[in-house]
Amino acid sequence: MSFSYELIGELKKSAGLSTDKEASEVIPKMTPGALGDIKKGKRHLTEEQALFIAHECELNTEWVLVHLAEETAKSEEAKQVWHKFGKKLNKSVTAAILALFVVFGGFGLNQGLEPDFT
């Protein structure tokens, strides 16, 4: 399954859509035929469409665009470069989330508890 169609699946799930036709009506500049071609792997989402889905599903826009670039790259070398960049981006995002958890992880966990000084 292509990354473009996986994104469409995320939109359907997030927006409570049950059919590809419904998804094609929501995605900018999308027709049912174009969505069918994406499902078959003959087409890809445009950047505008991918960004729309990213915003609707609250996905990281950089992550979405890197994976779309990997999917649409013409040469195998370009696909590999985008793939490596995507891995680095994933590691950076994971590290940032971990850092936030470490910094703020205990915040609020002990609210309402009083220290026992006896």
List the helices and strands and how they pair.
Blueprint: H1 3-15, H2 20-26, H3 32-40, H4 47-56, H5 61-72, H6 76-104
Overview of the structural elements:
The chain is mainly α. It has one domain: 434 Repressor (Amino-terminal Domain) (Orthogonal Bundle), CATH 1.10.260. The protein has six helices and no strands. The chain has helices at 3-15, 20-26, 32-40, 47-56, 61-72, 76-104. The longest helix is centred in the C-terminal third of the chain and has 29 residues, at 76-104. The chain is flat. This is DUF3693 domain-containing protein.
Supply the key terms.
68% helix, 118 residues, single chain, 434 Repressor (Amino-terminal Domain)
Number of strands: 0
* Unreliable residue stretches: none
Please write the string of helix (H) and strand (E) elements. HHHHHH
Radius of gyration from the alpha-carbon trace, in angstroms:
20 Å
Secondary-structure-derived class: mainly alpha
**How many alpha or pi helices?**
6
Instruction: Write down the oligomeric state.
Output: single chain
Measured as a percent range, the helix fraction is: 55-70%
Mean pLDDT: 88
Strand content of the residues, in percent? Answer: under 5%
Distance linking N and C termini? 62 Å
Write down the CATH class.
Mainly Alpha
CATH-defined architecture = Orthogonal Bundle
What is the domain tally? 1
Mass-distribution shape: flat
